[in-house]
Amino acid sequence: MALETTEDGWTDHSSCCEQRDFRHFVCLDHMSTYTNCILSHHKVLSSEPQEFRVTHVHHNWAIIKWKPPKKLAHTVTKYYVHFRETGSDSPNIYQIDVSTRSPHLIDNLRP
After folding, report:
1. How many angstroms separate the CA atoms of 99 and 105, rounded?
2. pTM of this structure
3. Fibronectin type-III domain spans which residues (predicted)?
4. How far apart are alpha carbons 106 and 98 in whole angstroms?
5. What is the pLDDT of residue 53?
6. How do 9-12 and 61-67 pair as beta strands?
7. Containing structural domain, residue 13
8. What would the mean pLDDT of 28-36 be, rounded to a whole number?
9. Do residue 33 and residue 54 come from a single domain?
C-alpha cells in the first residue's frame, strides 16, 4: 500500500502504483516512479506526448514529431529524448533536450 499524508488525512496511491506494475515498494530505486504517482494524483504532472513518431530518416539525421499531452500540456517546458546506436555492442545511450514544439530535427547521427 502506498500512502501519503495530506491536509484531509491519508491518500491511498496503491491503484496508481499497481497500474505501473509497482506493487511492492521495497527499493529506493523506484522513488521517482512513486513520486510520479503522487504528482499525477495532485494533477501537477502532465500526461505523455501523443502520437510520437519518427517521420523522416536520413543517414545522419532524423525528424521526430508528436502532439501535445492531453493533460497539463502548458506545464511542460522541455522533453528529453534518449536514443542509442543499433547493431553494435555499444552501451552508449544518448540524451538530448528537446523543445516542446514539434517537429524536432535530431542531427549528427552516424550511419
Report:
1. 11
2. 0.61
3. 48-111
4. 9
5. 96
6. unpaired
7. 3-41
8. 66
9. no
Whether the bond into 103 is cis, omega within 30 of 0 = yes
* H or E segment to which residue 109 belongs: none
Burial of 100 per CB tally in 10 Å (0-12, 13-18, 19+): middle
| The amino acid at 82 | H
Q: Tell me, yes or no, whether 32 and 58 share the same domain.
A: no
Give the cell for residue 75. 506545464
- Structural domain total, the chain: 2
Run of H or E residues at 18: helix 14-19
pLDDT in tens, 37-70: 777 766 777 888 999 999 999 999 999 999 999 9
Q: Are residues 66 and 100 in the same domain?
A: yes
Which three three-digit cell numbers place residue 39? 504528482
Residues 102 and 77 in one domain: yes
Distance CA 85, CA 100 (A): 24
